[in-house]
Specification:
With 251 residues, the chain is of the alpha/beta class. The protein has one domain: Rossmann fold (3-Layer(aba) Sandwich), CATH 3.40.50. The strands form 2 sheets. It has a 6-stranded mixed sheet with strand order 6-7-8-3-9-10, sandwiched between helices. A 4-stranded antiparallel sheet has the order 2-1-4-5, covered by helices on one side. Helix 3 packs parallel to helix 6 and helix 4 crosses helix 6. The longest helix has 14 residues. Bound molecules: adenosine-5'-triphosphate (ATP). Keywords: ATP-binding, Nucleotide-binding, Transport. InterPro entries: AAA+_ATPase (IPR003593), ABC_transporter-like_ATP-bd (IPR003439), ABC_transporter-like_CS (IPR017871), P-loop_NTPase (IPR027417), PstB-like (IPR005670).
């Protein structure tokens, strides 16, 4: 039986009075890659950001409905830092901190109160290896992270997320600023980490969704118009909007 990690019940989201998510009901499976697709402005990023409450501080944002993470209503959670350690986010543009490669990955570990230098070193190395970056940076650990290439910086951000041992990695178009080679490396990496983690990714690329995702959610004007196994939906979409999106008539 597939384990459900997120259950979203009747989620509506608003910026002031503008409704951008419209009665979304969906369950997201654990240790799978779920892609969120749909035309520009349909609410993909807003949905993703709801999953770790990143919209909380956005002016004018409000929502109704419920999001359960492992059965717990996330809007009842008091310790958001702890929650965001479990449900972490990687953004569209790589955003390494202005510090060394090593310190970027060690940052969250130190924040957790880990002081043992050997343990930090071991966890940093491990995270960089899981992010398929170790071989490229093992002799650059003390160099500023901003000196890495864009693709390396994005894998560093993924390593930073992995270091604190999350359960879910949310990614908002993580490859849109990268070239095809860097994109392929990130896609391979996501496929590998999905054996251990739940991955939810916003992507504009049908090819990317097909290559890496198990399930896909199609949003259209804030509504979830289709959800299911990616290969099946691509072959036989049931909704007219999905069909139009797949054939490039809307995008
Ligand atoms: N901070 C904000 N304040 C007001 N409106 C917003 C804000 N952020 C997003 N919106 C609006 O909410 C709607 C959904 O935006 P969202 O970024 O979630 O869509 P998206 O599908 O991710 O778009 P894209 O593919 O272009 O990134 C859009 O109409 C957008 O203009």
């Amino acid at each position: 039986m597939d384990e459900i990690i997120f259950e979203i019940k009747d989620l509506c989201a608003y910026y002031d009075t503008h409704r951008v998510l419209d009665h979304i009901n969906v369950q997201i499976k654990s240790k799978r890659i779920t892609a969120i697709m749909g035309p520009s402005g349909c609410g993909k990023s807003t949905f993703l950001r709801c999953l770790n409450r990143l919209n909380d501080l956005v002016d004018g944002f409000s929502m109704v409905g419920q999001i359960f993470y492992r059965g717990q209503d996330i809007y009842q959670i008091k310790d958001l830092t702890q929650y965001r350690r479990k449900v972490t986010m990687v953004f569209q543009r790589p955003n390494p901190f202005p510090m060394s490669v090593f310190d970027n990955v060690a940052y969250g570990l130190r924040l957790m109160g880990i002081k043992d230098r050997y343990l930090i070193r071991e966890k940093v190395e491990n995270a960089l290896k899981r992010a398929a970056l170790w071989d490229e940076v093992e002799d650059k650990l003390k160099k500023p992270a901003v000196q890495l290439s864009g693709g390396q910086q994005q894998r560093l951000c993924i390593a930073r997320a992995l270091a604190v041992e999350p359960e879910v990695i949310l990614l908002d178009e993580p490859t849109s600023a990268l070239d095809p080679i860097a994109t392929t490396k990130i896609e391979r990496l996501l496929e590998t980490i999905a054996e251990e983690y739940t991955v939810v990714i916003v992507t504009h690329s049908m090819g990317q969704a097909l290559r890496i995702s198990d399930e896909v959610m199609f949003l259209y004007q804030g509504r979830l118009v289709e959800y299911g196994v990616t290969s099946q939906i691509v072959k036989t979409p049931t909704h007219e909007m999905t069909r139009q999106f797949l054939t490039g008539k809307i995008g």
